[in-house]
Amino acid sequence: MTAQPLVIWGGTGHARVIREALRRESWHVVAVFDQREIVSPFEDVPLFVGTDTFSSWMHSQSVEVVAACVAIGGNDGKSRLDTADFLLSHGLNLPTVIHRTGFVATTATIGDGCHVLAQAAVCANARLGRSVIVNTAASVDHDCVIGDGVHIGPGARLGGEVLVEENAFIGIGAVVLPRVRIGSGAIIGAGAIVTRDVPACTTVIGNPAHPPIRK
After folding, report:
1. Is residue 212 in some structural domain?
2. Continuous segment of H or E residues that includes residue 189
């Protein structure tokens, strides 16, 4: 199968992760874009800066570019979704990327532009919205509902029936117990053990998870 051209928006480490996950799929990365003046993460792929440059670059291509991946990690789900909408407005598809070692149950539902990375698991009846990242070795157990723009960090564990609302961030190695609700834009610190609901736009850390103590 002939590889199809694809662009990546975001020029740092997550771009490298995405390209690795694409290795056995029929995509060929032809350009990287970012809002910042930085060095391309790949020696063989050029990096361009800004939305205006992107629009002119798209019009200059002799081969139709049909797809893009948004490589914006961290806790910036809103930027990830805004960038996805910008790319969609240019007629590009946002393929779901599943690493060859990742697991997605046949009864799970995965939205456009999601990334299920190396050794990650999305289990039975789980539902992922748009542009969700399930990062390296993270797991989303049965019947979880994950909102648009959520990032579940490396090694994080979500028990069954967890609800994570849009743009929330689950830090590295965090554990969320079954049937807990994580509000929109909440941040769960690395290694936190979440035993109860977390309100929207709240940061929690520790075991059991609690807001940071302000001095």
Report:
1. no
2. none
